[in-house]
Amino acid sequence: MIRMLTIPVTGQGLHEITDRIAAVVAEAGIQEGLCTLFIRHTSASLTIQENADPSARRDLESWMTRQVPEHDPLYTHTIEGPDDMPSHIKAALTDTSIAIPILDGRLALGTWQGVFLWEHRTSRKSREIVVHIGA
Amino acid sequence: MIRMLTIPVTGQGLHEITDRIAAVVAEAGIQEGLCTLFIRHTSASLTIQENADPSARRDLESWMTRQVPEHDPLYTHTIEGPDDMPSHIKAALTDTSIAIPILDGRLALGTWQGVFLWEHRTSRKSREIVVHIGA
Amino acid sequence: MIRMLTIPVTGQGLHEITDRIAAVVAEAGIQEGLCTLFIRHTSASLTIQENADPSARRDLESWMTRQVPEHDPLYTHTIEGPDDMPSHIKAALTDTSIAIPILDGRLALGTWQGVFLWEHRTSRKSREIVVHIGA
Predict the structure, then answer these.
(1) Residue B129 in contact with residue B40, Cβ under 8 Å?
(2) Do A36 and A28 meet the contact criterion of CB atoms below 8 Å apart?
(3) Res C45: pLDDT
(4) At A20, is the pLDDT very low, low, confident or very high (cuts 50, 70, 90)?
(5) Cross-chain residue pair B95–C96, CB shorter than 8 Å
(6) B1, B4, B30, B38: which to substitute to probe chain A, counting the most A Cβ within 10 Å?
(7) Collapsing DSSP states into helix, strand and coil, what is residue C6?
(8) Which of A11, A105, C123, C134 counts the most CB atoms within 10 A of its CB?
(9) Using CA atoms, how far apart are residues C52 and C111, in angstroms rounded to an integer?
């Protein structure tokens, strides 16, 4: 089964999508299998991170932005603005696809794991994720 | 088929788990398919690395720790100690899930590839990995 | 279905393989499913990146090489030359496996997404990728 999700985003940072993915798994109605996520963009990505304390996500975003700064004079791919090239680098360092086993009809996530869409650009309004559910 | 593995760990660094995964593949008894690994934590991760010379793994750990140091004054997520926030960043930069094809009844790894659990915290004793075997 | 692909490479950088993967999907002849790629090396990797403007890929390569320089005096794994240890680190930071859903008989890539083999060594001539197609 495949479902295409449109995820609204509001600026750079981690947007939790665990509930959206869990709803697709519930709809599939299988007890055991594999749920694979794929984001159809090269300037946003996927990650699994701590879902409890938002300070961990803020520090993660802050570390990444220091490593991949805007306005680096060595960038040549700047036509779409200062957040363009950093967004491609950040996407390359994180995940375009993630696979999560399904056990007892649910995502087999650990207690503190949430699924996040990581938006790297400043002004996008939504992103597309493909969810594949297999046996 | 899904198996839950508990992997003992002894401090930060790469712990090889190739044999544990290969045993699940052997138990599944299929000739061709896909083996997907998923780690149920946000402060430890998975990676495939050279399995021959341990110096490559030590240099990898050393590079990563220089890029993501403990005691960075910009971290705010510090309640669990100095290895807490770096562990989340290191996990985000590496893999939470990895898929390895199964060919002729075995993991289709290259000659020098080993599968590793990368422990980023100092005092954990074990970690959980979910192994999914599909057609 | 599994196919083993030998990909010719010509030095460090991103080599597009989208057409090679699409050909395997076409051969499989399924309408809906999952295509998983696995590279059998620890000094080359996979990534999905912008396929339109080559300047994005050059800047990505350049950023990565600045973060993971050759001739770092802290490397001890240097027996195969100055591009050896950086190649393992770059591979750890990017992907060994990527899963792409198949929809309407084709890879469900976004408009600007291409699939790339990222060669991190200077003198390799070819690399092996395993392609698994599942339902």
Answers:
(1) yes
(2) no
(3) 98
(4) very high
(5) yes
(6) B38
(7) strand
(8) C134
(9) 9
